[in-house]
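Honest question from a wet-lab person: if I give you the sequences of every part of a complex, can you actually get the arrangement of the whole thing, not just the pieces? Trying it with mine:
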Amino acid sequence: MSDVPAHLRYTKDHEWVAVGGDQLTVGITQYAADALGDVVYVDHPSVGSSISAGSIVGEVESTKSVGEIFAPVAGEVVAVNQAVVDDPSLINRDPYGEGWLFKVTGSDSDDFLDADAYRQLIGE
Amino acid sequence: MGSSSPLHRVHEAAGAAFTEFGGWLMPVRYSSDLAEHHAVRTGVGLFDLSHMAEIRLKGSGAAEALDYSLSSRLSTLEVGQAKYSLMLAEDAGIIDDVVVYRLAEDDFLVVANASNRDAVFPEFVSRAQGFDVVVSDETDETAMVAVQGPKVLAVMSAIAGFHAADDLETVGYYRITRGEFEGVEILIARTGYTGEDGFEIYVPVAKAEALWAAIVAAGASVDLELCGLAARDTLRLEAGMALYGHEINRRVRPAEARLSRVVDMDKESFVGKEWLEQHTEPSHKILVGIQAEGKRSARAGYPVVDPGSMEPMGEVTSGALSPTLGFPIAMALIDRDHREVDTEVHLDVRGTMIPARVVALPFYRRRKD
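Yes, you can. This is the full assembly:
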């Protein structure tokens, strides 16, 4: 069973979104991290770049496979997590905390799933 | 759905994640690919390899049948000796790579890849016609586990109910001996696919769970780690070992994969020999090792690009960020004009050109004391 915290929102691309003020913090879910295996490389979007909803803005690679990171909304990237570049294992150890990926301007969206809907998506 | 290992329940209980491999559902990892990988390099790891195919050739003509069926000369193996070999098609394409063990004068065990079992077994049956030999597929009756890593002997000597016919410390690399576990006959080979010292044990399926548990118990004091196929893949890649379906396949010939050393052209006759005799010009492609900069690894199928012309000149067959070495490594089949060590190449990683260079294989070699 994967951890799916109730206070977060989710996308069908297995990302989580934390809504706060006028920006969103984005990461990958524990389900996604478990499926990838040990993450060994993270590629972030550039801070200040404009991203369009659904576009590929980054990558997380494990020893076995590559996961693409999709922009959950259109907006401007305001911060990226350098700590996961230096230590990609944070994504496996603490996907909803220290393993966050980037922050983007934007607000809550009807396209996001709540924890129950996401749990259903991953069959748990 | 395909087959599952006789140890499947044990893996489920241990929390393994599974993957489909060669028609079998096998553990891909238990907790962490990297921890499992490092355990084999520095301590010891335990693998379930029950998907591997065990084919037995018995009879006074077994040695001759093998000499004809495979690329190497197996008839000169001593009893207890093992050899890596290839099964070639008539056009010298590689049907499978196998390890052959001589168990007795007239008794050989051939271990083939799970994915090729359905090709290799009937091929042996047909190639053995006219020789005094009985070919049997013992895969479904046999479990296979591997104990690999520098601390392997400490584990092997502590397995309860386990006896080897020879002192395992004196069993050389690529040798096999008989043994007994809880009264049942087993085979113990000093072989592996990790680049480390280690043993592979063949046990009847009825005793597989008990043996697994006994090895786990014996390994507790040296932090034995359960290892999945993900770690096995990065371990063999670092050791420069070919994986069927990646470095080698039906369209790759032995010299292209740098495996001419296991093709004995002095043998009177073997399948593939005629083609090789008629095609002595070197092929345009050859397998190389590649080391890249940064942390981003190329994967199977990614293009290798000539940095001068920016033209593709090969394809990656396997690639990963090496857990032991810390930089990206890959094997690739490339144009032989670029094969020299230190030749600069680019790896096209999803549109980004990663600077890299040709290096000698293997990437990792264990220290031998």
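Two things worth pointing out. Chain A has a mean pLDDT of 95. The helical segments of chain A are 30-36, 82-86, 90-93, 115-121.
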